[in-house]
């Protein structure tokens, strides 16, 4: 069966716009049963003008959900943040957006408490637990597995004794994370989740990168609705055109990223060359200084030898009773220096 490639934001967005499909999809990833689901915020879109003057939407694929999840003791309300990245530079966007997510007052819920003078309405605001789901379309420094779950734990800092990671304080200040690495999806599916995520396996791409050829019989029956939803996208000419425009935009963004990386590498290379030149200049200056000091020392040594030679000549002439003024003319020594030498002879 041919389906739209959900690696495209256009198809992915269409998939999650169906509430039933979104509950099924997200429940499979987090391993919990979502009974109610609603968008608390939609993804942002921007328009980029193509060379053809056609304006195309570039979807920053980001979804915020408010979900009611069934637990062993009842139900809990959580916030789910789902993002999909095409470029490695998107990681910084993840960080910024997660920070905003924690600050957003919409990610809270109210519980009833006993009315008091300080709280006459009997309402207590609590922070929702946040689940983060990331779909990565590129390789990262992560273990080579299709789906990774990052969980927090609570332990005694002294001896490592571990405690249940539960409670308002822990859950309100920490978040669970699931990372789906699309390039790690393999044909050998180990569980139903990996079978479901086979809809992202790029080895099933047909002659058109927009279309995947999948065996719908290989998907568990409960996930067939997801396959049917992606087939509808493929049959929509408008959506297919949006995929083409998305290709143009992503290719341009990747080219920009490559140019930025090349410019950064060039700048680093120039910096390294400048540093090497500076080091070489420093070495040359130090060598010149050393050479000058050596030359100065030699000159002083030569001067001392010359003076010693003059002194020896002067002493010999003094022994021969040569007049001091004649010795000064012959040796270049001052008459006072010669008089001092004469004193030493006595």
Helical segment count: 9
Low-confidence stretches: 44-59
Which range does the strand content fall in? Answer: 15-25%
The Cα radius of gyration reads 41 Å
SSE-based structural type: alpha+beta
Strand order of the largest sheet: 2-5-6-9-13-10
What string gives the helices and strands in order? EHHEEEEEHEEEEEEHEHEHHHH
Number of strands: 14
Total individual domains: 2
| Mean pLDDT value | 82
The profile of the biggest β sheet is: 6 strands, mixed
The global form is: elongated
Q: Please report the distance between the alpha carbons of the first and last residues.
A: 124 Å
* Helical content band: 40-55%
Can you give me a brief rundown of this structure?
The chain contains nine helices and 14 strands. The protein has 346 residues and is of the alpha+beta class.
Would you kindly provide a written description of the structure presented here, covering whatever features stand out?
The chain is built from nine helices and 14 strands. The protein has 346 residues and is α+β, with helices and mostly antiparallel strands. It has two domains: 2-235, no CATH class; 295-345, no CATH class. Helix 7 (237-319) packs antiparallel against helix 8. Residues 44-59 have low confidence and may be disordered.
